[in-house]
Amino acid sequence: MFVVEMTAGLIARSTGLIADSLDMFADAAVYGLALYAVGRSVSLQVRAAHLAGVLQLILALGVLVEVIRRFVFGSEPESLIMMAVAFLALLANTGCLLLISKHREGGAHMKASWIFSANDVVINMGVIVAGALVAWTGSNYPDLIIGTVVGFIVLNGARRILALKS
Fold first, then answer.
1. What end-to-end distance do the CA atoms of the chain give, in Å?
2. How far apart are CA 87 and CA 68, in angstroms?
3. How many CA atoms are closer than 13 Å to the CA of 28, on its beta-carbon side?
């Protein structure tokens, strides 16, 4: 989904889709780290979660820089592509959320995975709404706003994950 969303985001010139695609990339890394940490010591699980939190922090800052760049230089997002791809991502993220739901109270690595997946579902719905608003208003502001919201959601997720102790 990262590749699909990034490609569509570049084609559609959508900050929201690009931000969500980068979030998908970070999620894949988190899931990989969580799988690596399964059955290992609690301290390794916490370190894996914290590494994921640092990755999220870097991602959030990158997204916010991109929003500022697009605000300054402009963009014309394609609303139909935004909504269609965000809907596909919503299906994928809902599936992931359902798969890990029974393990969300596990170690720090599983709590981090749950936080990422729950954030993704909210973000996908936001991109769909932003796409509809872009279509309705003809403005790029809804896309820039959802890009900013994604940045702050990811930043908050990073904060929550870096605060995990076990």
1. 30
2. 25
3. 9
3-state secondary structure of 76: coil
**Of 27, 26, 8, 28, which is closest to residue 127 (Cα–Cα)?**
8
In sequence order, the 6+-apart residues with CB closer than 8 A to the CB of 79 are 131, 132, 134, 135
- Per-residue model confidence as pLDDT tens digits over 90-131: 999 899 889 888 877 777 767 777 877 888 898 899 999 999
Identity of the residue numbered 113: S
Residue keyed to tokens 């959508």: 14
The single residue listed with the structure tokens 């896309």 is 143
- 3-class SS shares of the chain: helix, strand, coil, % to 5: 85, 0, 15
- Per DSSP, 106 falls in state S
User: Which pTM was predicted?
Assistant: 0.80
- In eight-state DSSP terms, residue 72 is H
